[in-house]
Amino acid sequence: MVKRRFMTLARHIIEGEKRHPEATGELSRLLSDLSLAAKVISLEVNKAGLVDILGFTGDNNVHGEKVKKLDFFAHEILIRAMDHGGHFCAMVSEEEENIIHIPAKHKIGKYVLLFDPLDGSSNIDVNNSIGTIFSIYKRITPDGNPGTIEDCLQQGINQVAAGYIIYGSSTVLVYTTGEGVHGFTLDPSIGEFLLSHENIRIPKKSHIYSINEGNYLYWHPGVKKYIKYLQEEDEKMQRPYSARYVGSMVADIHRSLLYGGIFMYPADHRHKNGKLRLMYECNPMSFIVETAGGRASNGKDRIMEIKPTTLHERSSLFIGSEEDVIMVEQFISEEN
Ligand code: AHG
Ligand code: MN
Ligand code: MN
Question: pTM of the full predicted structure?
């Protein structure tokens, strides 16, 4: 008989907390609330082709991009699932310019939540993988009061948990609290996330690169040289590398985590600070990838040590297998 494992996400989190006698169980409860939001979003994503939910809302988000209905739906679901549990003092979403405060009728908690409700949303209409990314910090201002911008603008190294949900051929939730990176696949028949990828370790070196090569003309000369280097023949180094680019960082980084790989979104002549957002894209993904044994930098400095100044700031990102990220950093520094 095939042995089946029934380690649910909730049980896994509780068992993790049991190893820390000082833990209050709060992190378990808030991650469970988050997984409920993930199930609701997953359900909606799965039936996106069936209901009249596709297409633009007609509004632009704070970055001037068109917001699709599902982005906004996911944003609202996350707020509704997370604002009343008493865990958070503030939230930040890609879809809202300012801090989201906790309504006065709810208890104010000691954590902050930053999220990208739907990542890769240009892929919705074509049925490619999309995701949700989240990042959690402990507040630094005194308990009991509404959260402030200071609570939200912490360096990535202060994250207490981070994760993503990928809505792909199945829905998978990957999270870390700094002790291993674990993946859970949603079993839609019972509505539970079940442990499917325990203690994910990213290969130290890969043979896959992931970048929007259409921007080649605008890249830093070091990045151009690095990509050309990956395309040269060298059997020992597994070159030429394969190119893979979904255009949804959750999907591209999920693949890199499991197969090894380097994902890049560098600053270029047109995107002076890169495209991806530090607080709810780069930092949480960096926490996950580093905990799995990988590396993440802006080409020079470690992502998680960047001191943020604004909620929606952008950063260059080079993330994935450690040796590959070190290599691109060398190419960049040689051209400076
Ligand atoms: P979002 O859908 O949250 O705006 O993020 C899209 C991001 C990221 O997921 C992806 O890696 C990148 O944009 C793709 O950008 P290009 O289309 O410029 O390659
Ligand atoms: Mn995104
Ligand atoms: Mn988004």
Answer: 0.95
